[in-house]
Design a protein that fits this description.
Elements (H helix, E strand, L loop, with lengths): L2 H9 L7 E5 L12 E2 L9 E2 L3 E4 L5 E2 L23 E4 L11 E4 L4 E3 L2 E3 L10 E2 L10 E3 L7 H9 L4 E5 L3 E7 L3 E2 L9 E2 L3 H10 L3 E9 L2 H10 L4 E5 L10 H7 L3 E5 L3 E2 L5 E6 L2 E6 L3 H20 L7 E4 L11 E7 L7 E2 L9 H4 L3 E5 L9 E6 L11
Parallel strand pairs: 13-16, 13-17, 14-15, 17-21, 19-23
Antiparallel strand pairs: 1-12, 2-11, 3-10, 4-6, 4-7, 5-9, 8-9, 18-20, 20-21, 22-26, 23-24, 23-25, 25-26
Helix pairs in contact: 1-6, 4-5
Bound molecules: ligand LQZAQKY5 and molybdate ion (MOO).
InterPro entries: MoaB/Mog-like_dom_sf, MoaB/Mog_dom, MoeA-like, MoeA_C_domain_IV, MoeA_C_domain_IV_sf, MoeA_linker/N, MoeA_linker/N_sf
Cofactor: Mg(2+)
Keywords: Magnesium, Metal-binding, Molybdenum, Molybdenum cofactor biosynthesis, Transferase
């Protein structure tokens, strides 16, 4: 299957999970299940944009007898201001009825209880009118929006204490391979598991709940039993996707009567990646064992599937020109870690072999090199990484 098609199949494979109500504090990284609407006008009253004086009509103005009398933010301030009068006011304070403008403190001069200015104060100057940002019931953001810290701030400003969100997809991670050790140095032909430590936090950054990481070795029955027993929305396996003597994933999926939606993708690294439907509600993404190939599978299949489960819209991909040569493949897409800093486009990183993480760990994004090499103008699409994401996850 072409790489460009695989993401679409994964995104459409699962229905969005049910909605639930989340307190604001727990909602970051989740997805809005319904549009975010304003519960109030914003601002909800006419507000001073500056520290200074609220003035009524043209100057000079008369100030209150009591020099300390003024309106600070958070006060009701409901005495009306008469024409020719002024009152000290703080940024964010409610504008008194009758005021026509705010005069900034640096633009006015007091003598006794008279206020003068040499400036022309336009009607409404430095007043933020009620409803300037939105009216009550306005739609602020559509359903399917990722809840970022900024969305939380907007929701709070607009009066929300909780939000309707899509449930977090629950993911079981299954690390396969008898050759793996989980601490200390690689030795006697065994290597460190590089994927176990990486996947749970990566999945959390994509808005999922990583319920458990189990390490099963290359035991076909243990794999079968784990897949048959789980109630996770998504199982992610690592390794065992190829057809070696200890690659048990395909036979196990056949044994479970799973439907293979994607069985191999024309992408380097990562071509043995797969997507299967275990039951109508449960899916499995098989990531190849080579660590960068596994990341390719995570971005190609798992990320769109999680987006579909969360009801989240696909981000539009950024593009950049490549600032150095990259090897291309005649028929397959290539995914290459790149650095974006320095203003010279996307600089391909070395150490991008399928078994290497050194390039990825220094990368800002993954460049998508189409089959046969980059396009005529040399600009390629970029996949976000969670630590630099513009359209990806937070959490
Ligand atoms: N005859 C063929 N052999 C292979 C092909 C092929 O097309 N024909 N494809 C190669 C490619 S490409 C990849 S990628 C791998 C995929 O292999 P598996 O998914 O079956 O993974 P394993 O064989 O279990 O492991 C491959 C490699 O990755 C290392 N590994 C596995 N898990 C981890 C981990 N958690 N952390 C670090 N490293 C891991 C494992 O030790 C192997 O070195 O197949 C090729 N073979
Ligand atoms: O495509 Mo493999 O996934 O080269 O490592």
């Amino acid at each position: 299957m072409p790489w460009a098609m695989a993401g679409g199949v994964a995104a459409g494979a699962a229905e969005p999970l049910p909605a639930l109500t989340s307190p604001l504090a727990d909602a970051v990284g989740r997805t809005l299940a319904v549009p975010l609407t304003a519960l109030t006008d914003l601002p909800s009253f006419d507000t001073s944009a500056m520290d200074g004086w609220a003035v009524a009509g043209p100057g000079p103005w008369r100030l209150p007898e009591d020099a300390d009398q003024g309106i600070v933010a958070g006060q009701a301030g409901d005495d009306a201001l008469r024409d020719g009068h002024a009152v000290p006011i703080a940024t964010g304070a409610r504008i008194p009825a009758g005021a026509t403008a705010v005069l900034r403190s640096e633009h006015g001069r007091t003598s006794g209880n008279e206020l003068h200015t040499t400036r022309r104060t336009a009607q409404g100057q430095d007043i933020r009118p009620r409803g300037q940002e939105c009216r009550r019931d306005d739609e602020l953001l559509p359903a399917g929006t990722l809840i970022t810290p900024a969305v939380l701030g907007l929701a709070a400003a607009a009066g929300h204490d909780e939000l309707p969100v899509t449930a977090r997809p629950r993911v079981l991670i299954v690390v396969l391979g008898d050759e793996l050790v989980h601490e200390g140095l690689p030795q006697d032909g065994r290597i460190r598991d590089a994927l176990g430590p990486m996947l749970a936090p990566w999945l959390r950054a994509l808005g999922a709940e990583a319920i458990e990481t189990v390490r099963l070795g290359d035991d076909a029955d243990a794999l079968h039993d784990a897949l048959a027993a789980t109630d996770a929305d998504l199982v992610i396996t690592t390794g065992g996707t190829a057809s070696g003597p200890r690659d048990h994933l395909h036979p196990t999926l056949r044994r479970l009567d799973a439907e293979l939606l994607v069985d191999g993708v024309a992408v380097r690294p990562g071509h043995p990646m797969l997507l299967a439907r275990l039951t109508p509600e449960r899916h499995l993404v098989g990531l190849p064992g080579n660590p960068l190939a596994a990341v390719a599978g995570l971005l190609t299949l798992a990320e769109p599937l999680l987006r579909g489960l969360s009801g989240r819209a696909a981000p539009s991909l950024r593009r950049a020109a490549l600032s150095g040569p990259v090897p291309s493949h005649p028929t397959d897409t290539r995914l290459v870690p790149v650095v974006l800093r320095g203003g010279d486009g996307a600089r391909p990183l070395r150490f991008h072999g399928p078994a290497m993480l050194r390039g990825l760990a220094a990368a800002d994004a993954i460049a998508v090199i189409p089959p046969g090499g980059s396009t005529a103008r040399g600009r390629v699409a970029l996949l976000d990484l969670p630590w630099t994401a513009t359209g990806g996850g937070v959490g």
